[in-house]
Amino acid sequence: MSRALIVIDVQESFRARPLWDEIGNPRIAEPVNRLVRAARAAGDRVFWVLHTDPGTGGVFDPAEGHVRLLAELERPAEGEPVLYKTSHNAFTTTNLQQLLTEAGVTELWVCGIRAEQCVETTTRLGSDLGYRMVFVKDAVTTDTATGFRPEELIARTEAVLRDRFARIAEVADLESEMAASPA
After folding, report:
1. pLDDT tens digits along 46-70
2. Catalytic hit among 118, 139, 166, 174
3. Does residue 111 carry a catalytic annotation?
4. Whether 7 contacts 36, CB under 8 Å
5. Distance between the two ends of the chain, CA-based, in angstroms?
6. Which of 163, 154, 46, 137 is nearest to 96 (CA)?
7. Across-strand partners of 135?
8. From the first residue on, what is the mean pLDDT of each consecutive set of 10 residues in the chain (183 residues)?
9. Closest to 19 measured CA to CA, from 88, 114, 87
10. Three-class SS of residue 12?
């Protein structure tokens, strides 16, 4: 099996929004960094995905300067693609699927910001494309933009993905699994 980690929208655009004060986990970089380090140690691929809305003048418009990884995140290593998407999922407007196919990847671990939006949509589409999906529940977060509390949205997302589209896991579980299996 070949595995890859997909880091979705963990970007400064969210910190530039007024809702950052209402984000479920403002320290989202910590669990994401743990996953990145574990994936690299296991020899897995890491893909970085950033959301863009070119020409809008908003925080997701690349011209505004916020479309970049959160400052406290690990930096992409040489050869780790940084993909820019304009859709809610990481596949439709990028060459992610081509890169995964070329690398022989069959399992994807997903993490990121807006659990119920871009992370969930990527998870569902990845499952439909035939990948074994793992939704890393403590390496996702969201805000109150929908009127629900972040913990409610994440719990709902877990419930709809579990056993249909993805396995639900925590960072510590995945670290333990990787430590127990040879790279």
Report:
1. 999 999 999 999 999 999 999 999 9
2. 118
3. no
4. yes
5. 11
6. 46
7. 110, 168
8. 94 95 96 97 96 97 97 96 98 98 97 97 98 98 93 96 97 89 64
9. 114
10. helix
Q: How far apart are CA 54 and CA 60, in angstroms?
A: 7
Tokens describing residue 123: 């998870």
Q: Cα 117 to the chain's mean position, in Å?
A: 11
Whole-model pTM above 0.85? yes
Judge whether 91 and 70 are in contact, CB under 8 Å: no
Nearest in space to 127 (alpha carbons), one of 87, 168, 86? 168
Q: What angle do CA 129, 76, 162 make, to 5 degrees?
A: 35
* Rg of the chain (C-alpha set): 15
Q: Which two tokens stand for residue 144?
A: 């109150």
